[in-house]
Amino acid sequence: MVRIAEDAGYDFRLLRGVIDINEDQFNRVVNKLEAAVGGSLQNRTVAVWGLTFKAGTDDLRDSPSLPVTSGLVGRGAVVRAYDPTVAVDWDDAPAGVEIVGGPLDACNGADVLAVLTEWGEFRMVSPRAVGEQMENSAVVDARNCLDRALWQRHGFDYRGIGR
């Protein structure tokens, strides 16, 4: 729409502002993950749960997870991601993102867990089992779908978005 407006000689500042705000939200998630690991994502492993646009779909178009994972890789993180509808051998996986076969596989050796899509199955994963896989006990729940109190009782530094 911005391009169409520009072609018609109209300066659509409002829409450009909305786009800028949306992009800032992706950076906000990356910044929270960076803070959760103590400051730098360089050579840190980030477990990502969820890549699709929303739970219950296999649609990756315009998924907020993709710019977040790219931002993580751009800051030097190793990203290991799981999504129930994304195949391990996905040919179009973002550069630097390893797709794995399960949520615990993503957490193996991770410094922080990022929940980027609100799949119901993620609520069923045991925080204890996750903690046994991870190097550090930190989770950034960008969808606020996990039980904060439960994860905190299991020793996790739980950070939601917008709470």
How would you describe this structure to a colleague?
With 163 residues, the chain is of the alpha/beta class. Helix content is 38%, strand content 15%. It is built from seven helices and six strands; from the N terminus they run ααβαββαβααβαβ. Strands 3-2-1-4-5-6 form a six-stranded parallel beta sheet. Helix 3 (65-74) links the parallel strand 1 and strand 2 (78-82). Helix 2 (13-36) packs across helix 3 (65-74). It is globular and about 55 Å long.
- Main-sheet strand order equals 3-2-1-4-5-6
Q: Output mean pLDDT.
A: 89
Tell me what the CATH architecture is.
3-Layer(aba) Sandwich
Task: Give the DSSP E fraction (strand runs of 2 or more residues).
Answer: 15-25%
Short description:
38% of the residues lie in helices and 15% in strands. It contains seven helices and six strands.
Please give the structural blueprint.
Layout: H1 2-7, H2 13-36, E1 45-49, H3 65-74, E2 78-82, E3 97-99, H4 103-107, E4 112-115, H5 120-123, H6 127-133, E5 138-141, H7 148-153, E6 157-160
Parallel strand pairs: 1-2, 1-4, 2-3, 4-5, 5-6
Index terms:
6 strands, 15% strand, 163 residues, Rossmann fold, 38% helix, alpha/beta
